[in-house]
Amino acid sequence: MDYFSFEAAEVPEVPLMHGLSTSLVLIALLAIAAPLAARFLDRVIKVPIVVFEIVLGILLGPSLLGWIQPTEFIDTLAQFGLAMLFFVAGNEIDFAVIRGRPVNRASAGWVISLAAGIGAGFVLAPSPAAAVIIGVALCSTALGALLPILRDAGELKSPLGIAVTALGAAGEFGPLIAISLFFSGRQLGPATAVLLGFVLLTGLAIYLASRARHTLLHSQVTRTLHTSGQFAVRSIVFILTVLVVLSMVLGLDMLLGAFAAGVLWKVAIARAPEQDRTVIETKIDAIAFGFLVPIFFIDTGIDFDLRALIASPAVLALVPLFLLLLLIIRGLPSLLAAPPTSAPADKLAIILFGATGLPIIVAVTGIGRDEGLISSGISSALIGAGMLSVLIFPLLALRQHQRRPSGTPTRHVEIP
């Protein structure tokens, strides 16, 4: 009897593991197919790889072919990918460059966007919580998606690039604070106190890291940079894990911890030899964009509820509406961060860059959907608008920037 009981308990695990194995292989295949597809269309139109990753996830996911099914293991990997995306965003922001006018005016623009977004949410949604979800989604800027585009275009250190970086910093850090305040499960007062405690704690850690010489850290990083020790990568994983876990224990959004971890690592490694820093950045990119981040975007496509989106013409009509609202609610206030001598083409480019949003939209709509605050249709419409913004707005922005009047300075100009 024991023998037969043992067999009966084991049998259900076989199809489960088989399905997971198939899904993992197909996700790995999609991760390879996405950059190949982007390169194939590169001569015709420059499409961000994340768009292909999401679209391929939709194609093979339950919404269409059904070859890949959502699993808890894949969702966990996707959460690591999202955390790594925000770590990279925090690590790549040069606060010394954007401090002062750029970040101050970008922050003011974000506050305006949040207020306008929540106002629009009240018009579109039946409850205050749903209005906040929509408002936070509409006031975000996809810094993690924009930085590689600006870097590849050689605009990261230009006045335009500095303004967009400031917009992205406000458009990612601001929504993370809003999520932690409104969806922590606490009253607003206690939630604010906990958030301030986390900010003060991480701020103190960043300050102390900026003052220390880190001689032992840098020497150990140098010794193990090309060995199996990989002290730099292990330190990154440790810092990321500690701050993510700390934020979760405090009831804050884990992405706030991931973002802070990126900033902390940037400060800690700032005085290391430049050659070592370059190698470490390559390793970070390899882990993030070669492994974890693609899984997040592919999983976003797998979880995308296409049926809920196309089942109702009213829900489908929300996609262009949300896309327009991103331009109005997030794009127009972004003009506050425009450099004083910006040409009209550059101002239009800043509007388009500022209105580009996806990761925060995915994160906040996931919270809203899981807690029953918004419907799957609204969630899919917001994500669809975010996908279109990443596909369309950066491409149009770069074209507008390239049309600026000849002789207009574009690079390495200090903004007061």
Overview of the molecule:
About 75% of the residues lie in helices and about 0% in strands. The chain contains 20 helices and no strands. The longest helix is centred in the last third of the chain and has 30 residues, at about 275-305.
Question: What does the main sheet amount to?
Answer: none
> Count of helical segments?
20
The count of DSSP E runs of length 2 or more, i.e. the number of strands, is 0
Roughly how many Å apart are the termini? 81 Å
Helix/strand structural class: mainly alpha
Describe, in short, the structure shown.
With 416 residues, the chain is mostly helical. 75% of the residues lie in helices and 0% in strands.
Key traits:
416 residues; mainly alpha
SSE map:
Blueprint: H1 2-10, H2 13-40, H3 49-60, H4 72-92, H5 95-98, H6 101-124, H7 128-138, H8 143-152, H9 159-182, H10 188-211, H11 215-224, H12 231-249, H13 254-268, H14 274-303, H15 306-310, H16 313-316, H17 318-331, H18 344-354, H19 359-370, H20 376-402
Helix pairs in contact: 2-3, 2-14, 3-14, 4-13, 4-14, 6-7, 6-9, 6-17, 7-9, 7-19, 8-9, 9-10, 9-18, 10-13, 12-13, 17-20, 18-20, 19-20
